[in-house]
Write a structure and sequence with these properties.
By secondary structure, the chain is α+β, with helices and mostly antiparallel strands. The chain has nine helices and six strands. The protein has two domains: about 350 residues, Outer membrane efflux proteins (OEP), CATH 1.20.1600; about 70 residues, Outer membrane efflux proteins (OEP) (Single Sheet). The strands form two sheets. Strands 2-3-5-6 form a four-stranded antiparallel sheet, with no helix packed on it. A two-stranded parallel ribbon has the order 1-4. Helix 1 runs antiparallel to helix 4 and helix 4 packs antiparallel against helix 9.
Length: about 425
């Protein structure tokens, strides 16, 4: 008896500690992940790199400017007579490509598409990570509810065991009834221990995603609300205009279009303009003075047309055309896959709501059945096996309802991710 009371006190103490901890809502978990998750931070950094590359200088649309200086010392001991000399030059030089078949314009447009692609890839990774956080949060919440259910199961078995012992003392119960109650009580202790372990594991997994102390404890706000007014046509339209992965396929297609135009530009003549201004000085002997230096200014234009380079330019253009076709096919495939996934997610969400409705009815029926079985068991009108069956049916119904509740919510979040509405 003392052992049973001690175990019960430990269990209720553990549950009490959980209930007294901070409440972590789903919105809190998402907000923390957006601030602290490492994968999300990496995604943002990658997007920043892609946007930094969107610069006209990277597309050769800005002139180049350089400063060059040389000093040459010549010491000749072999001639007759021996001669030493020093030559020094300093030059400021600039260059600019006036025309290259508009290749620099297309390179800049490709960089712009790359910047948009970086943002979309970052958003896709962020949304995927938030989906993981959502799954971890509701998985931990479900584990917490299962822990509570296991506690209630154990409490009922404890009450039944105590009642069987008292009835046995007064000769109203057989020894087999006490042993059966003890076996079920020990079995429920195992169930509770496993539920506690599952909850702790789920809590640690969520803490990792939130970049918090892995052993940090918290409780859940387990209420969940659902929308039932989603329209499939509107969802599909939203997905085609906002889904990050699908839009990224479109940006890759645009980049390939610019690659083809760049390849074509390589067949065009190239016109470069260079200008320089510098100083030079020649002096006998090993020494250089800055006095009486000669200065010069030079400007030049060069025209270059590649007539033949071993078909490299032609092959580049052909490959660019093939890559463009592949990207077009990939974009079309992405559209078909997205439409299928949106329909599947929508139907899955509707089905999960229907299952949730049925599970609620199952719990109501199981509660009434257990209440009646408990009354009859106390009156000695049902067997231990019948009472245990009613008890397990109730626990199973509650656990299924908990799983259905969070499964429906995760289906909704996946649907929002596909339609580009998870991040606003």
């Amino acid at each position: 008896m003392k052992r049973i009371v001690l175990i019960t006190m430990i269990i209720w103490s553990g549950i009490g500690q959980v209930s007294g901890q901070e409440k972590l809502t789903f919105e809190d978990a998402i907000a923390i992940a957006l601030r602290e998750n490492h994968q999300i931070e990496i995604a943002r950094n990658n997007a920043a790199i892609a946007n930094n590359n969107v610069n006209i200088g990277n597309a050769d649309l800005l002139p180049s400017l350089s400063v060059n200086g040389t000093v040459t010392l010549q010491d000749s001991r072999t001639g007759s007579p021996a001669s030493d000399s020093t030559t020094g030059t300093a030059q400021l030089q600039t260059g600019y490509t006036l025309f290259d078949g508009l290749g620099n314009i297309y390179r800049f447009k490709k960089l712009q598409a790359g910047g948009r692609l970086g943002d979309l890839e970052a958003r896709d990774l962020i949304e995927t990570t938030l989906l993981q956080v959502s799954s971890a949060y509701y998985g931990a919440a479900s584990a917490y509810e299962n822990l509570t259910i296991a506690r209630d199961l154990l409490a009922i078995s404890e009450e039944r065991l105590e009642r069987a012992k008292k009835r046995s003392l007064y000769g109203q119960a057989r020894t087999i009834d006490v042993l059966s109650a003890r076996v079920d009580y020990i079995s429920d202790q195992v169930t509770f221990t496993q539920a506690q372990f599952a909850y702790d594991e789920a809590r640690r997994s969520l803490n990792v995603l939130l970049n918090r102390d892995i052993n940090r404890k918290f409780a859940f706000k387990t209420g969940v609300k659902y929308r039932e007014d989603y329209d499939l046509t509107a969802l599909t339209a939203s997905a085609l205009s906002r889904n990050a992965a699908y839009l990224a396929a479109g940006e890759r297609y645009r980049q390939s279009r610019y690659d083809l135009k760049i390849a074509r530009a390589n067949h065009m003549p190239r016109l470069d303009l260079t200008a320089s201004y510098g100083f030079n000085k020649y002096a006998d002997g090993l020494g250089l003075s800055l006095a009486e230096m000669d200065n010069s200014f030079r400007i030049a234009a060069s025209l270059n047309l590649n007539l033949f380079n071993g078909f490299k330019t032609t092959i580049q253009r052909q490959n660019a055309r093939i890559t463009l076709k592949n990207r077009e096919l990939a974009r079309e495939q992405a559209r078909l896959n997205l439409e299928r996934e949106v329909i599947g997610a929508y139907e899955s969400y509707k089905n999960s709501l229907q299952v949730l409705y049925l599970e609620k009815g199952y719990v109501e029926a199981a509660e009434l059945n257990f209440k009646r079985a408990r009354e009859l068991y106390n009156l000695g009108q049902v067997t231990t096996t019948q009472f245990r069956e009613a008890q397990l049916n109730l626990i199973r119904a509650r656990s299924n309802l908990s799983s259905a509740r969070y499964e429906a919510r995760l289906r909704e979040i996946e649907m929002l991710r596909l339609t580009g509405q998870l991040i606003k």
